[in-house]
Write a structure and sequence with these properties.
Blueprint: E1 2-3, E2 8-10, E3 18-24, E4 26-32, E5 38-45, E6 49-50, E7 61-64, E8 68-74, H1 75-84, H2 86-93
Antiparallel strand pairs: 1-8, 2-7, 3-6, 3-8, 4-5, 4-7
Helix pairs in contact: 1-2
Length: about 100
């Protein structure tokens, strides 16, 4: 999937049906506050993953911080591969995730 700088990949509260690997570019993970400000939680860079948590909905909004290319993996496939391939589960479990921020 390709996104231009500033486009939204997914929004906070959207159903978490996919996990993403950044092929090129960067994703900005953030929360949009009621007063219009944006609180940045972190960045996902080339080679890193986001959306790997086993949640029903995304906790952050993901925006293309630059022109972006990602691979979207269906969550169910990721979970199934983790069950059959323990080495993959360990690799995904070690993926860098943003620190938790408050609303």
């Amino acid at each position: 999937m390709r996104f231009s700088r500033g486009e939204t990949v997914f929004s906070e509260g959207d159903e978490a049906t996919y996990s993403y690997k950044v092929i090129s570019g960067a994703i900005r993970l953030c929360k949009h506050l009621a007063d219009g400000r944006r609180q940045i939680a972190g960045f996902v860079l080339t080679g890193e993953y986001c959306g790997l948590l086993h949640l029903d909905a995304h906790r952050f909004t993901a925006e293309a911080a630059s022109d972006l290319v990602v691979i979207a993996y269906p969550q169910r496939q990721v979970e199934a591969m983790g069950e059959t391939m323990p080495s993959m589960r360990r690799r995904l479990a070690g993926a860098r995730l943003p620190e938790r921020i408050s609303s």
